[in-house]
Specification:
This protein is of the alpha+beta class and 418 residues long. The chain is 45% helix and 22% strand. It has eleven helices and 15 strands. The chain has helices spanning 10-20, 26-34, 90-95, 116-125, 127-200, 202-205, 208-238, 251-261, 263-268, 288-304, 375-385, and strands at residues 36-41, 46-48, 56-62, 65-72, 75-82, 87-88, 102-105, 109-115, 247-249, 272-276, 284-286, 311-321, 325-334, 389-393, 405-412. The strands form four sheets. A five-stranded mixed β-sheet has the order 10-12-13-15-14. Strands 1-8-3-6 form a four-stranded antiparallel β-sheet. Strands 2-7-4-5 form a four-stranded antiparallel β-sheet, covered by helices on one side. The protein binds adenosine-5'-diphosphate.
């Protein structure tokens, strides 16, 4: 049932409008009352719709209306509720544009509709009405500003809570991985020891077929141990618990040792490893074992992601970096498949690997050989623990053209001195 109209004459409407447009001349009130049409709305009915052109303003006579704004499809923000004697819909007239919000009847509503012509005529004659509308608009702006700030604060708080929860979950996961790796590393060490004893046993050596089996066990167990070691290294890096004591380090000696370790794989894959400028580098200070691990991951990756016959080059030099001071800079470059631009940072995240992981082979030195996706996390953690930085550069990934990748490391000389 619609509300019956509460007015029996234009004079009634004029009396109703008097306090609403307080201070208006009689003739202006007359004009507004003449131009008013009484309308009733059912609960929930849309009185004016955001985005549609508006040439009518409204004065609520009875009931309440809700002013809402659509933030996203299906998501509304409630801006304001207005009761009897309050006006709405005037902004679109003043702006000569579309409705900036939707107004809906909260319950049964009776309202006066006043056309834009009468409203603008009266407004033009009455500066006091203009000022009052301005004050109203400013108040409404301030209200919605405060509402927006409150909503932003709430959203920020919720985001922070969600972030805290995710961080706690990530820590639980990292703890689980670290504890599991610890627990599993010990029996694997024992297993490797026994397998190596068997391998060296003369009886075993006299049986070629058994020897083959034991060799397989030793190789696989070593690989398993290497994976657990990497998980433990990565856990330390993620937990920021790397102990960096400062010992003199020869970068050239480290890379020479890495070259020696990889000699067989390099020759099998017909890869050339070139080293330039490393002997001329000054001694830097840090943990040789950790730096060796970091550099080894880079060379190992270059080996894995460069097709047979390619070149891996390691070059060294001294650079002055604005925020790090004097540094040694090492670049490990390859003529491999390259890295897509969107992955250049992501590859330093733990367990992140580019391309189709299922296609990676299980060998650590074969072309596109597999790995747990931890090498670069460890490398970055180690370099950062030494006060330095590491990043990747590549024109993109292309397995045919092989544009190559470069990993640049900067290690500060000054700050690292004990
Ligand atoms: P893993 O080698 O164990 O997969 P890493 O953290 O060492 O893990 O490397 C992460 C990923 O970064 C690799 O899986 C590979 O997709 C990419 N990547 C690393 N080094 C290179 C490189 N030299 N050339 C091309 N891609 C590389």
């Amino acid at each position: 049932m619609l509300d019956p109209t509460p007015f029996s004459s234009v004079a009634d409407i004029k009396e109703f409008l008097r306090p609403v447009f307080f201070g208006l001349e009689e003739e202006d009130l007359d004009e507004l009352a003449q131009a008013s049409a009484v309308r009733t709305y059912r609960p929930g009915e849309v009185i004016c719709q955001e985005g549609t052109p508006g040439s009518t303003m409204y004065v609520t006579v009875s009931g309440r209306v809700d002013i809402v704004k659509e933030l996203a499809p299906g998501v509304e923000r409630h801006l304001q509720s207005l009761g009897p004697g309050e006006i709405f819909g005037e902004i679109a007239i003043l702006q000569q544009g579309a409705r900036t919000a939707t107004v809906r009847a909260a319950d049964s509503v009776t309202a006066l509709e006043i056309g834009q012509e009468a409203f603008l005529t009266v407004l033009g004659r009455s500066p006091s009405l203009g000022i009052r509308i301005l004050v109203r608009l400013t108040n409404r702006l301030r209200d919605s500003d405060q509402q927006a700030i409150a909503a932003l604060r709430k959203a920020n708080e919720e985001l922070n809570q969600a972030l805290g929860k995710l961080e706690r979950l990530d820590r639980t996961k990292a703890d689980f991985i670290q504890v599991s790796a610890h627990e599993l590393r010990t029996p694997v060490t024992a297993l490797l020891g026994y397998a190596q004893m068997l391998q060296a046993n003369p009886t075993m050596q006299s049986h070629a077929d058994l020897q083959l089996l034991v060799d397989g066990i030793v190789t696989s167990t070593k690989r398993l141990a290497r994976v657990f070691d990497m998980i433990l290294d990565a856990s330390r890096v993620v937990a920021d618990s790397l102990q960096v004591t400062r010992l003199p380090v020869s970068v050239a000696a480290i890379f020479q040792a890495i070259a020696d370790d990889n000699r067989e794989a390099l020759s099998q894959r017909h890869l050339t490893l070139v080293m330039q400028g490393l002997r001329e580098l000054p001694v830097c200070y840090g943990v040789p074992d950790l730096l060796r691990k970091a550099f080894n991951h880079l060379v190992n990756n270059a080996l894995k992601f460069t097709p047979d016959g390619g070149t891996i080059s390691v070059s060294g030099g001294e650079v002055l970096v604005p925020d790090l001071g004097p540094c040694i800079q090492i670049v490990v470059a390859d003529t491999g498949i390259g890295i897509p631009p969107e992955d250049l940072e992501l590859i330093f995240e733990k367990f992140y690997r580019t391309g189709e992981v299922a296609l990676h082979s299980s060998s650590t030195t074969a072309f596109k050989g597999g790995g747990p996706g931890l090498g670069l996390t460890i490398a970055r953690g180690v370099i950062q623990a030494h006060g330095g930085r590491i990043w990747a550069e590549s024109p993109g990934r292309d397995e045919i053209a092989c544009p190559g990748s470069r990993f640049v490391i900067q290690l500060p000389l000054g700050a690292a001195r004990p």
